[in-house]
Amino acid sequence: MGTGVDRSSQEWPLVPGTRWRYVVLLGFCLAAATAYIPRNSISAAESSIRKELSLTKKQTRWIIIGFFITYAGMQIPTGQLGHAWGTRRSLMGFAGLGSLGVAGFALSPTMGALVGSRMLMGTAQAGYFPCITGSVGRWFPKRQQAFASGWIGSSMSIGGAVGVALTGLLLQEWSWRWVFLLYTFPGLLWAVWFWRIFRDRPQDHPRVNAGERELICGPELDSDRPLPVRDNRVSTRTVWLNIICNRSMWGICGQQFCRGAGYMFYASWFATYLQESRGVSISRSAVLNSLPLILSVFGCLIGGWVSDKVLQVTGSLAWARRGLSVVSMLSCAALIAIAFFVEDATLAVVLISCGAFCASFAGPCAYTATIDMGGAHVAQVFSTMNMAGNVGAVAFPFIVPELIEWSGNWDLVLFLFCGLYVAAAVCWLAVRPQQLVVRDPRVEGG
User: Fold this and answer.
1) 40, 189, 261, 386: which could form a disulfide with 160 (CB 3.0–4.6 Å)?
2) From the centroid of its chain, how far is CA 353?
3) Residue 407's CB: how many other CB atoms inside 10 A?
4) What would the pLDDT profile of 47-60 be if each residue is shown by its tens digit?
5) pLDDT tens-digit profile of 362-376?
6) Which of 438, 436, 432, 223 is nearest to 318 (CA)?
7) Torsion region of 422: left, alpha or beta (phi above 0 gives left; psi -120 to 50 gives alpha)
8) What is the residue extent of each domain of the chain?
9) Which pLDDT does position 230 carry in this prediction?
10) What is the C-alpha to C-alpha distance for residues 214 and 205, in angstroms, rounded to an integer?
11) What are phi and psi of 442, to 5 degrees?
């Protein structure tokens, strides 16, 4: 019998809810930050490592991209592992393995050992965000998922900014080896704490009451869409066939490839670009290098909030995810193009950093779109998208030395950097976040 209450119109459940999901979100944010500190610090330390080991830029690029080779290649295997093991067990194991890789990097005596350690770090961190994104879908109602994704994305930039700036400052007094040895500990401490505060499902957590469970799992804004359901009746072959053949997947993978490649300009060669093209000192370049990462923090936060607001106002996932992302990508490209013609180094960095701010709006949109499109298969959809992004992250640092050697300056690199964001906007046009990627009538009632 009906109760006469339109529960789909209620913003809050009848029972006052706990807010443990925000503690869980804090755990995810700390995971992102501690992962990005050693991951991005290589940018500030690249010239110091190159000098100590008497390497060329073409050699150090392998140290930079070694991480992304395994990070890209292990996205799908570690995503599947996280799907099978659950986020709680998986993230604790990934954090421990990643800290081992950071320690190995600090103690590596040769270039080969440095590359191997970075590849171990990449393998460990590959499983982080498929697990985290799937858990956002389970721990947050749809109207808050972009908000949560925005905070997680901003935490990546906080970790990256802190890592780059702190490394630049510490390198004035310490060897780069001691700096990376210091970065071994945050991930280990986080893993122990996260094991205590997290459960894979809100209904399994003793701190989550009925009100919060109802808020998380109750009626959604788009009530015609079925809620994600885990169902093993859908074969692995069916899942991957749908993913490979889906147009939206090609679009979201394409935009992630371009954004990943563009982001790597900040995380790899940006400090070196400032030193060689703009005449900036090592310590100042490290600080300036952190500026786009800092603005990306605010961009992710605001972008997630705006995406949720657009969804609430329009009820349209297309406008909330795709429309916002297209505008942000084109704005970023325009600002980079303007910076190309600016002589002053600081002003050029400010313009490029404002571009990074605009581009970061698309981060929470992309993450949340995989939840929208993934249904019961968020881990597979997200890991496929993220794999494409990290193929881009591998490609960009690899070709930068070739472009510089061929052209004799950094101009062609800046041109490519700008073009990547235009291409990302075009790819977003193909994304249909309102449509599930994997469709099975036995599961979705079709």
Assistant:
1) 40
2) 18
3) 12
4) 788 888 888 877 88
5) 999 999 999 999 887
6) 432
7) alpha
8) 16-205+235-438
9) 43
10) 14
11) -70, -25
For residues 263-278, average pLDDT = 79
State the DSSP string of 254-318: HHHHHHHHHHHIIIIIHHHHHHHHS---HHHHHHHHHHHHHHHHHHHHHHHHHHHHHHHHH--HI
The CATH number of the structural domain formed by 16-205+235-438 is 1.20.1250.20
CB of 175 closer than 8 Å to CB of 169: no
Cα 340 to Cα 130, 289, 337, 343, 351, distances in angstroms: 36, 17, 5, 8, 9
What is the C-alpha to C-alpha distance for residues 123 and 98, in angstroms, rounded to an integer? Answer: 8
* Residue 218 near residue 437, CB atoms below 8 Å: no
- For residues 381 and 243, is the Cβ–Cβ distance under 8 A? yes
CB of 17 closer than 8 Å to CB of 209: yes
Residue 221 CB: number of other CB atoms within 10 A?
16
> Looking at beta carbons, which pairs linking 244-247 to residues 24 or more positions away fall under 8 Å?
246/437, 247/430, 247/432
Phi-psi bin for 369: left (phi > 0), alpha (psi -120 to 50), beta? alpha
Q: Which of 175, 39, 37, 50 is nearest to 111 (CA)?
A: 50
DSSP per position, 31-99:
HHHHHHHHHHTHHHHHHHHHHHTT--HHHHHHHHHHHHHHHHHTHHHHHHHHHHH-HHHHHHHHHHHHH
In Å, how far are 50, 355, 361 from 308, measured between CA atoms? 45, 22, 12
pLDDT computed for residue 218 by the predictor: 66
* 341: amino acid identity, one letter: F
**Amino acid letter, 65:** I
Looking only at Cα atoms, what is the longest distance across the chain?
78
Amino acid of residue 109: P
In the chain, the amino acid numbered 80 is Q
